[in-house]
Structures are given as structure tokens and as C-alpha cells.
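Look over this today:
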Amino acid sequence: MEVDVKKKKNAVSLLYVENDRTTRHMIATILKQKYPRLTLYLAENGSQGLNLFIEHHPDVILTDILMPEMDGIQMAREIKTLDSSARIIMLTAASNTDFFIDSIGIGISHYVLKPIMTGKLFAAIDHCLDSIGLERQLRQQDEEIRIMAYHDPLTGLPNRLLFNELLYLALALAQRHDHDRGLAVLFLDLDRFKVINDTLGHTVGDQLLQAVAERLKACCRRDRDTVARRGGDEFIILLPDIDTTREAVNVAQKIIDAFSHPFAISEHELFVGASIGISIFPDDGADCETLIRNSDMAMYRAKEQGRNRYCLFNQSMNDEAAQRLAMENNLRRALQRGEFFLDYQPEVNVKNGSVIGFEALVRWQHPELGLVPPKKFICLAEETGLIVPLGEWILRNACAQNKAWQDAGLTSVRVAVNLSPREFQSINLAEMVENVLGETKLEPRWLELEVTEGIMIHDIETTSRTLRRLSNLGVHISIDDFGTGYSSLSYIKKLPINTLKIDQSFVNDITTNSDDAAIATAIITMAQSLRLNVVAEGVEAKEQMKFLYSHKCQGMQGYYFSRPLPAGEIQPLLRESHWKDMIPQRATMH
């Protein structure tokens, strides 16, 4: 390690103790000439030298041995008692053998014989200065390492490690005062940050995080509170020494209000919200881990409630989290244990009452919980990523079942399988679909893949590429729950889509709500103009069916025709015109 000795020489101080005035003056003059920026302290005996050391703590001590009041040996012993690392250079005549022996064991750095040769003296001082420089550089590096270990390099805020230590100390202080004063932990996650990061790039995203850090600090008490970055777009705040929950709520609301103003980043005006979870000591936890976990849990509840808001922790969240964890563990084992099965709901052509296809719907039969509703596990599978292996299982079993019906001589129809956003974002989706079709030997034209509008609006280029690859295989593509998203008509026209499925929310009140009727009618008209098939979902009443058919919607699906059925009950439905008797004559439809 190379040390800038010159720089270190200019930054050090030296105490010179000599009782002979002439010698003291001469050596002091030589030292000032050699080291012009050296801070020099002069003393005429050991007693004065010791006092100056205690007052100024110089880096190097240069001292004679024989002096009145306190000799150099005594002074050196006292100094070493105060600071064992003190660097002492002893000036001694060759005849001072007894004093030399006395100094052994004290820890003298160097001896310079009298008469003093400046070269020898400078060499001894330089050696001391070099070691001082090295020590200072090592201390500086240790400090830099400490800063790196305890601070986030992007924002300069305390990191997770330092925050945990500060929270531990704050808790110890609060507990020492018998909980007279509380503290709060605020867990904060930015809303819409991923969209900004993905759209404008990581440089803008990093600048935004830095600006967020400054705005958060401005919302807190600078002399007490700690704002830290947990990682990604997550921040955590410690509010020590608070009287009431209201104080923590006020800070959370102050942050939300501050975030209502845009961030000016690289010529962009960016808006991000903040979802904040709050836990309070001692009510919501008495240790670091519990307080942080509970504030994190409350933050997720704030997101569920609509984002850009705060939420206080309560015990019911813990109970829900425990249930969720148990459900997640059960879900992970369900595939291995073969607890899933498929039901099939028919899509009907109301013009002639025949089946035009089936939608494969996954069901979970848990050995203890019984039949678990899809709404309880599909979202969880999506969030945990388990939807990907589950989706592949659904696809493979649906294709295999359809091929089995065909091999049994039944009428060939398409089977539709829903694709989740997680599956659709997979880079090997088309390859996986092609492999499943190859394994099951099902022709691609008998498979329909359903995607939602929400999938399409995030990245139209990637969406288009993926859909075209699937379409090129010969797979039928439909948009599920159409009308509930924000897809552009120009996108629909450009994408390889075969069918639009009208969401059941518009079908429910289609005969009583003019808005729903207008939307459904507009979708049917648009689909016809684009030469697309259209299927209405959730048809449960004859009046709904009649209205839709009267507006030229021939494809329908819902409980009016059939509930989802197990594969073993499908065969009768594949007879021609199975629902013909349920459909009134055309004359009654107008």
C-alpha cells in the first residue's frame, strides 16, 4: 500500500522536549525548515512536555533524556501509560548507558545519538510520519468500508443493516423507560415505479429514487428520525420517541401529500404514489423483526385498498398472513399430490344449439379443506409464480383430454385455456405450447388460448410478437373479459385475434341497464365489422340469451346452458343440436 508521506507530514504535529535553550532553538529551526507545515510544540523539561502531550496529543515526541524536574525516561513512561501507540524518539549520548537500559521495555520508537546528525534525525521522524500516514489511511479505508457496509450507495441513506441496529437501540431505550414513549416503523413502497423504470430506463429510475430519498427526509424530523432504503423501491422509516399513533399517521399523511407533487427528473415530470404500512411499539411488536414484518404486512394491505395511502397494522392481518402462508404451502404441494382437476364449460352456438367449444377451468380438491374456490387460489398462484407450472399442467391436461374425445370418435371442437399475465410474459410460452401440442398430438386448430385486455396494454410490441408466434402455430386466440380493460381498437385490428368474449359484468344487467346493453351491442357490432367471432360470457337467463341473439351474438356461455362439468359428463353435449329445444324459434327472437 502506497502512502502519501508528504501529505501526512504536512498534517502532523511534533513535541520537542529539550532543556538546553540553544540546542532546542537550533533543532526547532531545522525542523521548521524541513517540515514547514509541521505543528511544533516546545518544552524545556519532562513535566512541561507531559502537560503539552495531555493538552495537544502530538503525533511524534522528540525528547532528550537528562532534564530537571522530570527526565525523558519518566516522561516517556507517563505518555505510554496514556497512549501506548505514542511514537517517541529518544535523543541520547553514547555515554548515557544507564538511561538507555532504563528505557528498554517502554516502547521507544527510535534512538538518535548525540551529537545529533540531521540525516539520522530526519530518518527517524520520517519513519514515524510514514507509519502515521499508513495508520490514517487504514483508518480512512475502514471508515469507507463501514459507510459502504451501512449505507445505500445510490441514495446515501442508511441501509437495512444500519436501520436494524438503530431500531434495536431505539427499542432498548424505549423499554428502559417502561414504555412511556413509543416508536413507529413506517414501511413504504412506491406505486408505479416499475412502469417508470421500465419505460424511461434505469438511469431515470435511479435519479427518481434519489429524489424520493430527499423528499422523505424532508417529511421527517432530521435530528431524530431515520429514513432508510430497504432495496428496490422500498423504504423504511423509524420514528422514535413519539407519544401517540397520531404522530406516526401525521408523518405518513405528510409523505402522501408530498408525493402528490411531481418529481422533475431529466426533463420529465414524474408522478409516483406511496403505499405505507405503520406498526407501533409496543402494541404491534416488542422486537425489531416483528415491527418490521407487521409494517410490511400493513403496507401490502394499503396496496390492496387502492394504493397511495397508509394503513395501520392490526392483528387480523397476522391471522390472514398465517392463513395465506398455509394456503401457499398447500398450493405448492397440490401439484405434486395430484389434487387439481379440470371442469369444462361449453360454449354454445345458439343458432342451432350445438357446442362450438369448451373452456377448461381448474379446480382444487384439497384433502382437508375440500373444494377450494378458484378465487382463493388463482391470485395467490399468480403472485407466487406457481401459476406458471400450474398453467402448463392445465394446458397439457386440456389438450390431452380433447385429443381423447377426438380419438373416441366425438365431434371435434376447440378447448379454451386461460393464460395468466405471468405465463404470457414467459419468453418460452410459444415453445411450451408447441411442445404440449406435440406431446398430446392435438392439432393446434383445436386449441384456443384466452388472454385478457390487461395483458395487451403493458407492452404491445412484445404482445404482438407472442400472439403472432402462437397464431402461426395454428392456435386460436381470443380476448377474455373484453370491455373491462383499456385496449385500443387499433391494437385489436393489428393483432391476430379470432374471438372477443364479452365480459359477464355487461351481460348480468343487459336487459335492465341501458349502459350495459349499449356496451355489449357495440362490442358485437365491432367484432362483426372486424370479422371476429364474439362470445357472451355469464349468460344465466333466457331474457339475456334472447337479447344477445337478437343483436346477432350467436356464441354464448353460461349457467343458462350448463355449469362447468367434469370430463366424464361431456360426451352427451357433443351430440348435434343438444340445446336446440332451449332456444326459441327465430320468430320469437325479434
